Amino acid sequence: MGKMRGWSAALALVIALGMSGCTHLTHKWEFDAHVADVAGMQSQINANTAGLAATQSELADLRRRLAQLEEDFGAHVSDEDLHCPCGLVVALPVHFDFDSDEVRPVDEPLLDAFSAAVMGSYPNAIVTVGGYTDPAGSVAHNAALAQRRADNVRDYLVTTAGMGGDNLRSVSFGEARQVNPGAQGPGQSGIENRRVTFTIEYSGSTN
To answer: Which domain holds residue 80?
Structure first.
């Protein structure tokens, strides 16, 4: 009897150990679910990689077009002065007469070319037009004048150059960030401060 009780105890121990081991096994449906999750993640990675490649190609084309503006019109393109690495700052030689907010006819071909470059390579980019003045006049006057300059350039880009209004913003920088510090008045040195710049933000989808 004692021997049989010993065998029974040993059998119970084996069964208990076996049941304990089963808790570490993965059911087939769980395994299949994990495989499906991995496949889904890989598919998303592939899609993201393809999207990134397309974005990089579009940006490369945009840079090429803007570089052509540099060569043809004397524009300047840089990645500087941004709060995030998500865009380009483009300084076009678009200037204004003294105390004027009107877009000069001489600058219209350059704005047309800029619009064609952005719309052709990156049509969904957000473009911010920043207006500036020389230091002549009060700070309040210059802030309002710079805003009108930016607004008028934005309006030209929409109504004449064909850019989408939803993608265009305008802001005033007043007499800040002077190209030629202190230069003012009708002279050529003052005109360098009476300008607009363009910030092209390209984060997000391009589809």
So the answer is: 29-201
